């Protein structure tokens, strides 16, 4: 642990306990061994309609296949083009580089094989549609890539690859649509040669339909706006000295159709206050066609620990995104709740997902397909990947105070839901009355109402759908919000909510009459890490799990009356327990 981390640890631990005790909501977490300290990502790699997780191994990548119950199952491994040797995977992007329909992966990795034999390579791994990959082209451009991203940058309908190299230059590999790439285009960035680490990500920051590129070194963040034909206009978002720019995420935080930026910072003092680190939120104003392409910087957030990964997700389902993050020495996930005025709560909710460790990676995905965002974290110090099912009780639909705006509390972005899809939206416009609200599916108008709000059911075919809710006012202005939803046929997973320092049995209910096998669904919410959770039937221990804070298991029981008790034990020895009496028919 570095000196700044040691200095921050004691205070950050106290902050963690304080904000955890304020919360009465839980995540259902399960931990899996994973020999990885590199990036993680998501996608349906075996095409079964269930999201999977991809992460690095010592020789390449692995895909943990999702199950219908919201757990990770079989592991599928694939090598990179370098045989043997330890591989350090530095970046990983999921895209479709061919017309096969399968998800592919592009990786950048470095390492060594013996003394004096180091390497720095990029591979495209072409998906087979079963969770494994075949080695595609090794990409070489005479430089050393540090980060990569993928999208269709030249509007030819084929996915391109963009990298930033060690000199701070953007290099674009135009895709041919068959897993190979054409002649390279290089774009100088003006980033200093020695202010690594660099990172590159894609987003539509001015919502003109052309994907832009955002790049960083350790002190500067710049957006390259796409003017078409691979011509880009650079615009500095912010220059950060005396603070180091640790990382950033490009995401539509306020869900207005324009990509925003979340930035994590480190320094001798944070952007505001006495603590050593924090993060900033830059929301795109979206102004183009004669106006400057600019960003509004929200008041900075400070934490007593370094934040290494951030994402935006609507954790409580009120229609307003929250900020979710992980920090190295804390024990899990923190959430700053989004507020209707566009700001965020002053203090975060925190959720224990394991023992203190280096929680360095975070992704959001609907693991159990219940229409709510769940989370996957990587603790690189313990080589553990943890899935956290969202059991936070759903809040009432909120209405943003920003004008003009559309707030859609259903559906949540990037989730799985069955058809028909319920869409619930409200509007705010202080300049002129809202005259109509419209729903578009995959850019096609399918519903229009002359009202300020909408609550409707839309039948949809299976697959990923782009949902746009657009409002028009009496002055002829329009504003919209976008959701990407995976429509599937199946049964969603279930979650179980528990209050702080308590254990709840959600199934079976007390005095229930049920048939065998009997499903036991229970969750513990402890402000310390759990060592085990156990199930007793008729006072006999029949089940224990050292890797989770919940139980979702079925037991074969004879006809008659039975007692069911679930107990959890934390690192201090505290026991949480609850019992049920049931009758098996």
How is this structure best described in words?
Helix content is 3%, strand content 51%. It contains one helix and 45 strands. Strands 18, 19, 20, 21 and 22 form a five-stranded antiparallel sheet that branches. The chain is mostly beta strands. Residues 1-24 and 268-275 have low confidence and may be disordered.
List descriptors.
585 residues; mainly beta; five-stranded antiparallel β-sheet; five-stranded mixed β-sheet; 1 helix; 51% strand; disordered N terminus
Count of helix runs: 1
Distance between the termini: 57 Å
Measured on Cα atoms, how large is the radius of gyration?
A: 24 Å
Shape: globular
In helices, the fraction of residues equals under 10%
Residues in β-strands, percent: over 45%
Whole-number average pLDDT?
87
The poorly predicted ranges are: 1-24, 268-275
By DSSP, the count of extended strands is: 45
Seen as an oligomer or otherwise, the chain set is: single chain
Secondary structure category: mainly beta
Largest β-sheet summary: 5 strands, antiparallel
């Amino acid at each position: 642990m570095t000196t700044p981390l040691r200095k921050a640890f004691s205070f950050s631990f106290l902050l963690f306990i304080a904000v955890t005790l304020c919360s009465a909501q839980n995540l259902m977490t399960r931990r899996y061994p994973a020999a990885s300290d590199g990036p993680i990502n998501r996608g349906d790699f075996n095409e079964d309609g269930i999201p999977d997780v991809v992460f690095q191994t010592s020789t390449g990548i692995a895909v943990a296949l999702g199950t219908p119950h919201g757990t990770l199952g079989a592991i599928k491994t694939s090598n990179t083009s370098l045989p043997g040797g330890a591989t350090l995977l530095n970046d990983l992007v999921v895209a479709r580089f061919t017309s096969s329909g399968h998800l592919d992966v592009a990786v950048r990795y470095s390492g060594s094989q013996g003394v004096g034999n180091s390497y720095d390579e990029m591979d495209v791994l072409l998906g087979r549609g079963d969770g494994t990959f075949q080695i595609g082209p090794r990409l070489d451009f005479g430089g050393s890539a540090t980060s990569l991203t993928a999208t269709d940058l030249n509007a030819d309908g084929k996915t391109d690859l963009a990298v930033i190299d060690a000199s701070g230059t953007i290099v674009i590999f135009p895709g041919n649509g068959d897993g190979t790439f054409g002649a390279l285009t290089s774009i100088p960035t003006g980033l200093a040669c020695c202010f690594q680490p660099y990172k590159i990500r894609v987003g539509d920051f001015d919502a003109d339909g052309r994907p832009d590129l955002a790049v960083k070194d350790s002190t500067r963040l710049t957006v390259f706006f796409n003017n078409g034909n691979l011509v880009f206009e650079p615009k500095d978002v912010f220059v950060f000295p005396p603070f180091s720019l640790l990382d950033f995420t490009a995401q539509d935080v306020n869900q207005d159709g324009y990509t925003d930026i979340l930035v994590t910072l480190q320094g001798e003092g944070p952007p505001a206050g006495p603590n050593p680190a924090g993060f900033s939120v830059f929301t795109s104003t979206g102004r183009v066609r004669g106006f400057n392409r600019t960003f509004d910087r929200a008041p900075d957030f400070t934490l007593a620990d370094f934040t290494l990964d951030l994402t935006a997700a609507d954790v409580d389902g009120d229609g307003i995104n929250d900020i979710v993050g992980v920090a190295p020495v804390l024990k899990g996930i923190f959430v700053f709740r989004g507020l209707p005025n566009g700001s965020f709560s002053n203090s975060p909710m925190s959720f224990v997902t394991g023992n203190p460790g280096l929680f360095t990676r975070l992704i959001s995905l609907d693991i159990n397909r219940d229409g709510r965002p769940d989370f996957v974290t990587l603790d690189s110090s313990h080589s553990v990947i943890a899935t956290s099912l969202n059991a936070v009780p759903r809040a009432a639909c909120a209405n943003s105070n920003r004008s003009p705006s559309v707030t859609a509390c259903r559906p949540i972005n990037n989730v799985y839901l069955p058809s028909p899809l319920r869409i619930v939206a409200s509007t705010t416009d202080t300049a002129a009355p809202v005259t109509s609200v419209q729903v578009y599916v995959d850019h096609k108008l399918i519903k229009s109402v002359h009202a300020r709000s909408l609550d409707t059911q839309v039948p949809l075919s299976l697959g990923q759908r782009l949902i746009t809710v657009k409002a028009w006012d009496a002055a002829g202005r329009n504003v919209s919000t976008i959701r990407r939803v995976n429509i599937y046929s199946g049964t969603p997973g279930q979650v179980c909510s528990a209050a702080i320092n308590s254990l709840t049995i959600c199934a079976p209910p007390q005095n229930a009459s049920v048939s065998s096998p009997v499903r036991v669904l229970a969750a513990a919410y402890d402000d310390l890490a759990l060592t085990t959770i156990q199930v007793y039937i008729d006072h006999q221990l029949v089940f224990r799990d050292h890797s989770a804070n919940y139980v979702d298991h079925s037991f074969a029981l004879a006809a008659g009356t039975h007692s069911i008790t679930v107990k959890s034990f934390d690192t201090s020895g505290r026991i949480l327990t609850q019992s049920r009496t049931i009758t098996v028919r």
